[in-house]
Amino acid sequence: MKVLVAVKRVIDYNVKVRVKPDNTGVDLANVKMAMNPFCEIAVEEAVRLKEKGVASEIVVVSIGPKASQEQIRTALALGADRGIHIETDEEVQSLEAAKLLKAVVEKEEPKLVILGKQSIDSDNNQTGQMLAALTGMGQGTFASEVVVDGDKVNVTREVDGGLMTVALNLPAVVTTDLRLNEPRYASLPNIMKAKKKPLDSMSPADLGVDVAARLSTLKVEAPAARQAGIKVADVAELVDKLKNEAKVI
Amino acid sequence: MSILVIAEHDNSSLKQATLNVVAAAKAIGGDIDVLVAGENVGAVAEAAAKAEGVNKVLVADNAAYGHFLAENLSELVAEVGKGYSHILTSAGTTGKDFMPRVAALLDVAQVSDIIRVESEDTFVRPIYAGNAIATVKASDSIKVVTVRPTAFDPVAAEGGSASVEQLDVVKDAGLSSFVGEEKAQSDRPDLASAGIVISGGRGMQNGDNFKMLEQVADLLGAAVGASRAAVDAGFVPNDMQVGQTGKIVAPQLYVAVGISGAIQHLAGMSDSKVIVAINKDEEAPIFQVADYGLVADLFEAVPQLEEELKKVL
């Protein structure tokens, strides 16, 4: 079966984020960019399904500026077969991203679509669920285990207070959580091979999708800093402070 | 304006987060109705009707909603919610699951995980793991919003007298079914709503050592959490994770043990009222946010803490 994986180019998670002085956003100039960590887990899961003989082809799609092709090449180096780049310099929000992905789903007809549960820039946690709604598919969000069984997929989900398993009809959408797998690193020979794998490029207009934003960001600020308190000498002083000064125990 | 709040519950009791979301709805202003969707939810509906500020409770009681499957719940909420100006729910794993689906069915954007209401269409929410705070304005006719419960003080659980109305809308999308669940076994309070949280990090060295924290937690009536580093190292399950990629907590007292204070962890707990850090590395960033810092070996300090607490509690 064919698996579609969506990946997003975001600021590298090790980079200290700085808010621009004019409060219009976060400073992305000369900042290291990388594949969103949850998307790496999505690619890895697809590759494992292929290694198990469950998936036959992995198509990776990314929406974003020209440079997003770097993240597509990374996914190809990890084991995806071909890439689709929907090129735009506009900010694409979750609903519009879901509409673009829906257009790709209609063209490619994958049995399974795997996405990260959220991107670490906008932290929305929406696109997978919206794609599932727009395509009329079931969804297994925050997955920690994915088992394809005939025309169904069983997804174990990380929910408040434990785990929950659902069975979904295929085709279905899965969004990944941290514990689904540990992504591998791309080997140098595979990075070289990935350069020759096919990569199609298209625009949102080619797919007939209007990507105008519905949410406008009025300002972006740095969070209020918390002041460091005092150091206590020992446990007895700590307990005394908590009881008699802070009065929280 | 009219606001529909989707209740968070477990079919038998109303989760406190619902009261926090009603508080967010009050900040927006307007009539507040609460939708209770589930199976055998009579007691939940009664509790919701008593909450302060609720106008009407709508009840959709059917096996199709018993496990809160997003495919079914979203169709119900989209249909019931289309007559409202706002649809709100808690940003717990259930709300995060079904709400974007509701937004897509209504062809509107969703505003996720708000921490403040500026006006009826303008909300404040953290981005970049809490390293930046964005103020966003929604232009759609229906505002679909998830609310970070810890950012709003709950409305009173008693005192209201809303009417209760049964809905006979049954939506079964036929796309998904419930297979099973594994509840984390614990007599301790829920991490997200506990008044005191004690968390361990990589410094705990292994999962067995978390028993030390559990003993202290039981003295204090606290929940036990963990940093992502402790989860990634396999010490404890992910549902204990405090941080931007885990649970966001804001208890009266947060005790961080053997946690260095990575940005993503701080994003999940820095709204706590009082923060205590116990770490042997005095340069650890956690001390920059701690009200009380103790530079010590946790394997000595935690047993001492247990003894000292026994004396005063």
UniProtKB/TrEMBL annotation, chain A:
SUPFAM superfamilies: Adenine nucleotide alpha hydrolases-like (SSF52402). SMART domains: ETF. One of its GO terms (biological process) is carboxylic acid catabolic process. Residues 23-211 form the Electron transfer flavoprotein alpha/beta-subunit N-terminal domain. Signal peptide: none annotated. GO terms for molecular function: electron transfer activity. Its cofactor is AMP. InterPro entries: ETF_a/b_N, ETF_b, ETF_beta_N, Rossmann-like_a/b/a_fold. It comes from the Bacteria. Keywords: Electron transport, Transport. Heterodimer of an alpha and a beta subunit. Belongs to the ETF beta-subunit/FixA family. The electron transfer flavoprotein serves as a specific electron acceptor for other dehydrogenases. It transfers the electrons to the main respiratory chain via ETF-ubiquinone oxidoreductase (ETF dehydrogenase). This is Electron transfer flavoprotein subunit beta. The lineage of its organism: Bacteria, Pseudomonadati, Pseudomonadota, Gammaproteobacteria, Pseudomonadales.
UniProtKB/TrEMBL annotation, chain B:
Belongs to the ETF alpha-subunit/FixB family. Keywords: Electron transport, FAD, Flavoprotein, Transport. Binds 1 FAD per dimer. One of its GO terms (biological process) is fatty acid beta-oxidation using acyl-CoA dehydrogenase. It comes from the Bacteria. CDD domains: ETF_alpha (cd01715). It comes from Marinobacter nauticus. Its cofactor is FAD. Heterodimer of an alpha and a beta subunit. The keyword Electron transport applies. This is Electron transfer flavoprotein subunit alpha. FAD binds at residues 202, 227-228, 241-245, 258-265, 279. It holds the Pfam family ETF. Residues 3-182 form the Electron transfer flavoprotein alpha/beta-subunit N-terminal domain. GO terms for molecular function: electron transfer activity; flavin adenine dinucleotide binding. The electron transfer flavoprotein serves as a specific electron acceptor for other dehydrogenases. It transfers the electrons to the main respiratory chain via ETF-ubiquinone oxidoreductase (ETF dehydrogenase). PROSITE patterns: ETF_ALPHA.
